[in-house]
User: Fold this.
Amino acid sequence: MVAALVYPAVFTIWAHVATCWRICASPAARSAGEHSSDRPPTVVVDRKVTRLSAKGRMGIAGEFYRRKAIARVVRGRRVGRVGDWEAGLPVSAYLIREPSNVHDPNAVMVHVGHAGGSVHVGYLRAQVAPAWQRILKSLESEGQIASCPARIYRDRDAFQVVLWLAGPQEALMANPEPEGAVLLEPIRQCAVLGEQHYQGVLQSYPASNGRVWVTLHRGTVRSGKYKGDLTIEPRIDGQPVGYLSAAQGKRYMRLLDRGALVACESDVYMGNKFREVRLWLPRVD
Assistant:
C-alpha cells in the first residue's frame, strides 16, 4: 500500500526534535492494543530522543482506531488527502516497544508529539515490528527513545500516518546528532568535491551503510575555475570533509538560513580511489 508508493520530492523542513522529550504511556493504553480507547496517556517517562535515519517511507497500522487522537493533533490544520503527498502535516514520531501487548509482544507503538507530550496514533505493522526489536531494546537500555519525521494525511473518514524512516539495518546514524541543529529532510543526493584531501577524517566512519550526520557551513571553492567562490562546506563532527561545487553551493545556500546550525544525512562510501561523501538534501526548486 503506502510503502509501495513513490512520494513526490517537494517537502518542507522538519522541525528539529528536542534533546529530551516526555513520552507518555498509560498502563491501560499499553495493554489494550489497536482497539484501545483514544484517552490521552497519563504516565510520564523521561527519555533522551535519538533521531533515526529518515531515508525511507513506511505506513503504519491502526490509525482508524486512533482517529480521535490524531484529530487532536491536527486541530483544524490543513492536512492533504492520501495521494496529495506534498500536503501532509509534518510531525515528529516516536517508536515505543509494547511487550505487554496481549495481542503481540513484538508490538511497537507509534506516538506523535503533541502539546508538550505525545499521542498514540497507531503501531508498526505486525510483519515489520519484530525486525525493530533489537534496535529499540538497545536504545531503551541506554535510556533513549527512537524518533523519526512523519506526515499525517486524511483518508476518507480517518487519517493515515506515514513515517520517514529507513529500515532497521540502516536506521542508526554512525555519529551523534549535532546538538541544537535543524535537521533537513533527505530527498535529493548531492555530490561533495575534494574528499581526497580529508581521508584522515573519513577513515573514522564506515564506508558501507554508513549514514552520517553532516553539518553545513559557508565556505569557498578550493580549486578550479571557481576557486574562491562562496559555497557550502560539509563537516562531520566539526571536521571539514570537502565542499560543494559553486553551482551546487548557490543552489542550496538558502538552506543555511533555516537555523543557526543546519545538518543533513550523508553517506560515506568507498569510491574508485578513496572514500567519498554524498549528502541528502531537500529539494529547493
